[in-house]
Amino acid sequence: MTKPKENESMDELISDFSRFYILTILYEGPAHGYSIISQFKKRVKKEVSPSLVYPFLQQLEEKGLVTHTEKPVGEKERKIFELTDEGRELCTGLFKRFAELVSIAIEPSLDVCIHCGCKVYEGGYREVIDGKETTFCCMHCAQSHKQEKSEQKRLKA
């Protein structure tokens, strides 16, 4: 009997993601509701309901995070929504928190270039050096690393 509850929480989760994504669309620039729905579908490959989008835009406007102006778009007048300064600040904070979460999630999958220290998510360049597989971000770092090691050995000799 917990199935409906699980589905409700999944719908809530997706709904919260949808709101977050709506904010990312607005962060990129002013947009009208239909444009937000279209961009969402194009990027996320999922439909977002107008019954979620328009009330959310209204909530944002009531909280002073979004303003709208009416402009002609084609043959219709459309409300063009734009983040206020406070809305942009909110988004910046949310994006930083989201980036931290993503970083935590992918950290175990990261390799670090032994030469420059940059993090490598996928691929990278690997070479066996002194019998040990070593990860680099690129072949140029591998070459530089080998030259530095060779120089260090020469200086010790």
How does this model look, in words?
This protein has 157 residues and is of the alpha+beta class. It folds into 2 domains: 3-107, Arc Repressor Mutant, subunit A (Orthogonal Bundle); 110-156, no CATH class. Helix content is 58%, strand content 20%. It is built from 5 helices and 7 strands. It has helices spanning 3-28, 33-44, 50-62, 85-106, 139-156; strands at residues 31-32, 66-73, 76-83, 111-112, 119-120, 125-129, 132-136. A 3-stranded antiparallel β-sheet has the order 1-3-2. Strands 4-5 form a two-stranded antiparallel ribbon. It has a two-stranded antiparallel ribbon with strand order 6-7. Helix 1 packs across helix 4 and helix 2 (33-44) crosses helix 3 (50-62). It starts with a helix and ends with a helix. The mean pLDDT is 87.
CATH architectural group of the largest domain:
Orthogonal Bundle
CATH topology of the largest domain, which one?
Answer: Arc Repressor Mutant, subunit A
Principal-axis shape: elongated
CATH superfamily of the largest domain: Winged helix-like DNA-binding domain superfamily/Winged helix DNA-binding domain
Name of the top-level CATH class of the largest domain: Mainly Alpha
Task: Please state the structural category.
Answer: alpha+beta
